[in-house]
Design goal:
By secondary structure, the protein is of the alpha/beta class. The protein is built from 7 helices and 10 strands. The strands form 2 sheets. An 8-stranded mixed β-sheet has the order 6-7-5-4-1-9-8-10, with helices on both faces. Strands 2-3 form a two-stranded antiparallel ribbon. Strand 2 and strand 3 form a beta hairpin. The longest helix is centred in the middle third of the chain and has 14 residues.
Amino acid sequence: MLFQWHEHNFRQHWRKLSLTPFWFEESGTTHMRTFVLRARAAPTDSQKLLASVGKEAHSEILAHTLMNAIFVAQSHRADVTVYLVLESTLDFSRTIRFDANAMHDIGGFHEQALLGKVAKALDVSRGMGKEETRPVESGVTVRTVSFERLVQELAEDHQLFVMDPKGSSMREQVFEGNPCFLLTDHIPMPKKILPSLERMGAKKITLGKMMLFASQCVVLIHHELDQR
């Protein structure tokens, strides 16, 4: 059904869509779902990023994760924020923030369109100094902040979770406040950073014994939270 939804209709639906937040039934209050993808191999040069699809850097992971975090069939999720942290750089990491509530006509949900949004943000970020912020378009901003710095900021008002095979089962986890899930691309999270994440309050959780792509983790996380 998803692939039969024509892009023209998608654009029309996106403009007219009345956002409906999800609810945690136990509390009756709206919560944001936040996903952070640490893309260690993703270039911060837009042309190199687009050229790396299907190659060693696997930049397509960014598009797949963004799609599964925000979109559903014929619609999109409200109250979802996605941070893509691109780290293959000659100067500073680029952190691109996508706020589903503020985004408008995204131009389609296929891989090329989504990577085009990422590339546009990278072009806007040219010449930025350390820890600067620039708007890209409605709902999209780019910053020159590291993954570690971003997580420090999110720890102030989010419940942090890092995916780890040795973590506790997500189904047994109690979620309070605004959950934030820390993911990585095909390069595993460095083991040396896990203690610092735990000091910031991050809890290890697992979705099962099988190693999954970040984009697959996002789908299962949404599904689990949708049941509550």
